[in-house]
Amino acid sequence: MRNLSVRHSFGFTLIELMFTVGILAVLMSISAPALGRLIDGSRSRGAQVSLVASLNLARGVAVSAQRHVIVCPSKDHLHCDENMWWHNGWIVFEDTNQNSRRDDDEPLREVVATQPGIAIATSIGRKFVRYRPDGSASGTDLTYTICDRRGEADAAAIVVNNTGRIREAQPEPARAAVACASLAG
Fold first, then answer.
1. Which of 32, 40, 58, 166 is the most buried (most CB within 10 A)?
2. Is the dihedral of CA 162, 168, 172, 177 positive or negative?
3. Mean pLDDT of 138-157
4. How buried is residue 95: exposed, middle or buried, by Cβ count under 10 Å (0-12/13-18/19+)?
5. Does residue 20 form part of some domain?
6. Which residue has the higher pLDDT, 19 or 137?
7. CA 101, CA 27: separation in Å to the nearest integer?
8. If we measure between CA atoms, which residue out of 127, 132, 163, 119 comes closest to residue 143?
9. 104: in domain
């Protein structure tokens, strides 16, 4: 005869489940800030790579097509903005009539979308880069300051000099403060 009073239970008790959830909550609260910093750093680096790639594309097109090519900030992704903020996106276009603005008949070479969680600023006086047919960049050196939510200590800079050469640099503290302050607003 079988004993019907013996039951085998395969599951969790409420206490075991609460203990497991508690451990998971502690582990998540410890790892979440580090994961956020990792994501912010990745976005910032991605924006830097995109910007450098656009600048290199513009310089290459200027030399190969023997035309003036401009890289400028653009919210509407069709025309240049008249400000120093690049995180809303930018465009690369051939300035065939050399008027320093994109006309509807001038070819767009690249359109880069908004960079979420990132601030990219240039100095007030330099709002775009114009590459000449010889690959040089007209005007004075242009510095882009790139900041994310990690703050000024992790800001980066990209410099385009008159010869058109692009390099990474440490941002000036004042420029980093301006770029990072825009993220708070």
1. 58
2. positive
3. 89
4. buried
5. yes
6. 137
7. 53
8. 127
9. yes
- pLDDT band for 8, please (50, 70, 90 cuts): low
Q: How far apart are CA 155 and CA 171, in angstroms?
A: 7
Residues 6 or more apart from 158 whose CB is under 8 A from it?
A: 48, 51, 52, 55, 143, 144, 146, 166, 167, 168, 169
List strand residue ranges (DSSP E) for 76-128, in order: 90-94, 108-112, 118-121
Q: Write out the E strands in the chain.
A: 69-73, 90-94, 108-112, 118-121, 129-131, 142-148, 156-160, 166-169
pLDDT average, residue stretch 141-153: 90
Domain region containing 102: 14-184
Residue 5 lies in a domain: no
The domain that holds 36 is classified in CATH as 3.55.40.10
pTM listed for this prediction: 0.80
Does the residue 7 lie in any domain?
no
Residue 120 per-residue DSSP state: E
* pLDDT per residue as tens digits for the range 112-127: 998 888 999 997 778 8
Total domain count, the chain: 1
